[in-house]
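pipeline/complex-builder :: batch 7 item 3
reading input block
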Amino acid sequence: MCAAEALVEIHRGPFLESQHMGHAVICDSTGGIIEAWGDPETIVLPRSSAKMIQALPLVMSGAAQAYGIGPDRLALACASHQGAPLHVQAVNTWLADLGLGDGDLICGTEASRDKELRFQMIRDGETPCRVHNNCSGKHSGFLTLTKHLGAGANYVDPSHPVQVSVRDAFEDVTQMESPGFGIDGCSAPNFATTMHGMARAMAFFASAGQRNDAMSNAAGQLVEAMMAFPELVAGETRACTHLMRAAQEPLAIKTGAEGYFVAILPKRGIGISLKIADGATRASNCAIAAILVRLGVLDAANPEVKRFLNPPVKNWDGLVTGEIRPVAGLTGAA
Amino acid sequence: MCAAEALVEIHRGPFLESQHMGHAVICDSTGGIIEAWGDPETIVLPRSSAKMIQALPLVMSGAAQAYGIGPDRLALACASHQGAPLHVQAVNTWLADLGLGDGDLICGTEASRDKELRFQMIRDGETPCRVHNNCSGKHSGFLTLTKHLGAGANYVDPSHPVQVSVRDAFEDVTQMESPGFGIDGCSAPNFATTMHGMARAMAFFASAGQRNDAMSNAAGQLVEAMMAFPELVAGETRACTHLMRAAQEPLAIKTGAEGYFVAILPKRGIGISLKIADGATRASNCAIAAILVRLGVLDAANPEVKRFLNPPVKNWDGLVTGEIRPVAGLTGAA
């Protein structure tokens, strides 16, 4: 952590008010580091940025094919969605097709992050369901695999066949033994790796089309699904959705709690792992946008990019009082 | 900012997941530094941690006395309140006593942070008012002074007599020229100083009882008001309120946006200035509690202290998945 370096600044008037440190690694498909900030050997929990890895066993096991899981549901399995009506309906239908319901999810309840739905539920006296949890798509994927395997109901137990297969896949794509796990916001184990390990994993996904083994084929399907359904991976106003739509070449990206972000560049076989050391999402959004501008994948002049790269800080009265911006040089702009 | 040092850690399972850097200065009434972390010369915007300074002209001008502003309203003038019914009613009454109303506040609207009231307003189809803004007490103080001076309505303009007097007071207690200001969340100017300057200011408040000049008398009244009404300074569940109640000796503390916190120890004539470099409140709450434990003002074993010093990190299902904790040694515990 101590070797983290400054990546994002918060300005207010003429002053640098706050600053976010972090680590980032850009890696090619051979595992080589193309560029890095901070310490590539820092141990990290990639949180929801690991969801496409956690979805690998769903595809590799044959469960996705057996249950007719199309690319929309694969995108949801990789998603931290808004709990907007779009997402809630899709997950409910998926669960119903499995003969299951909200009570079978083990992700806990979370209020919808879609303001209109959240307010409507408050007005209607409804309390949030598990399906509204941003991880309910990932958990529907876990439930599909559980059913396919005929395994027990407690699919978040680290010794459950689903999580054992997730760990195996995680260690395969990170190309290292995981030093352990923490329990995630949705109660599933979240396996640890290094910044470099996570970048290698993303480069594995990015280069999947260059290979023809079962894991690469599964990875390729998941990347295609994320890119085909950016609105399912996160939702309106969210960085994942807007930046994937704004990309000038094929791009899959995924945020994670505590300042994580990853990117997959299939055309180049390149993966990116980013962690803001203090865990701030405002900074991980800005820094991933900056690095993608640096690589020429995003255009800094695109308004959809600017809203994450250089968002204004506004006050309660709507006045612009400051700006979030990447440190000088991070975008690579002159 | 670069000289900030690690103050607070976020642990998940066996892993250090995130880390907050910061600056802190403990200062005596002569302006001498007793102890410091990070860089005492860092320029900072103390945000709402400066509210008791911004209230000095209200008292020194005679406006508070002329308008019968008691210690409850002085506490509100120094507050970042919850917008709970308690606060909303008190501010509305204050405004009515001035012959003014919600529309005279220039702080912008903010949804109440009191969940029950916020949900009730959504159910009733009501939109947030300016009085619900956490700064509405400070602004009521500004309006009182404006009326007393017979000045213009735009009391947040940096050249308005109210803000000129705030700047004068700010430079007096920080004992340095302010390098400028940023516009705060509530549209008032927020004057910059150094970490050391802000600690000197807090030591001025802490030692006010040792002197008998007009500014010291005003400072003493404000500190007494904050300590007498901790529930008005913030509200239930907030660090300011709970830690002031838990203090083992007289103590006034005040949070500010972007990871600020200050403390005033009247018995010792000591002031504390704290800034988390990345702006995180979870870290400023923890670090100020830790430093106050270090000084023997708070008891680390007190549950009301532990909820900010060592709060568990819980997930959507209510499971404890980690812990926020100060870095080893910060509390001074063996």
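note: Chain B is about 40% helix and 20% strand.
queue -> next item
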